[in-house]
Amino acid sequence: xxxxxxxxxxxxxxxxxxxxxxxxxxxxxxxxxxxxxxxxxxxxxxxxxxxxxxxxxxxxxxxxxxxxxxxxxxxxxxxxxxxxxxxxxxxxxxxxxxxxxxxxxxxxxxxxxxxxxxxxxxxxxxxxxxxxxxxxxxxxxxxxxxxxxxxxxxxxxxxxxxxxxxxxxxxxxxxxxxxxxxxxxxxxxxxxxxxxxxxxxxxxxxxxxxxxxxxxxxxxxxxxxxxxxxxxxxxxxxxxxxxxxxxxxxxxxxxxxxxxxxxxxxxxxxxxxxxxxxxxxxxxxxxxxxxxxxxxxxxxxxxxxxxxxxxxxxxxxxxxxxx
Length: 323
What we know:
Layout: H1 7-19, H2 41-47, H3 53-74, E1 78-82, E2 86-89, H4 90-95, E3 102-108, E4 113-119, H5 121-131, H6 149-170, E5 178-184, E6 198-208, E7 211-220, H7 221-225, H8 228-231, H9 237-255, E8 261-264, H10 272-276, E9 294-298, E10 301-311, E11 314-322
Antiparallel strand pairs: 1-6, 2-6, 3-4, 3-5, 4-7, 6-7, 8-9, 9-10, 10-11
């Protein structure tokens, strides 16, 4: 192993230390103190939420069905593609919106809450041009003005169309009922959710002719947390087929369960003494006539009524009523 210092250099170093030529009391350099920033643990835990895989499945179904519905409504081919889901505080989401904007509040009755649908202005104006018969559809000039009443009516119809397709997309996971509530042009007017609350944001790209824009669906995480058990696993086509196959197999097995069916011709209450005194050829008077309906029991429970008769030479009971 090679020596870093020669013997002469080592001797010179030791001599310098012993004679005081080399200072051995050097102080370490003083590091500049850095100012610490406070960390808000409460805010961190508020927006650090679990992902809900079933939402990806729902929005994928919704994108396909809404594309077909919107294309049929506009009578023009529409391309729709969903972006990855985001979970962020509502305050940060609002900062990305311009004013005026188109924010539609949709109430979900089964979930007892609401979610918001936001359309980019170019998409809205492109839809309007398509509906009112423009032959050359291009990206319109948006001047930052508010929408007119006619334009709001068109937006309402598109949102109601969205509600129908959203209910269909949710049906394999959880049944919801969506209803259009109102439209707002300023996010500050929607005060039903605080800025610190976490929301699930789904951005769906819409392309009509050469015009591209986004449709954003913002749903409070607190609303989803009430049905978190339904959203933590992703349903699949294989699961649905397996459940259907299992149901058909179970139904076939149930049909093979043997049942004890008994026809009660009549009843008679008597004492134990009278019963012990009965002999051959005694007559027992029952509680009904020959033409009265008789009871048909299954496992000692009364389920049907019928009448006695003959069928192809055999004694039979014709069922007249199922209770």
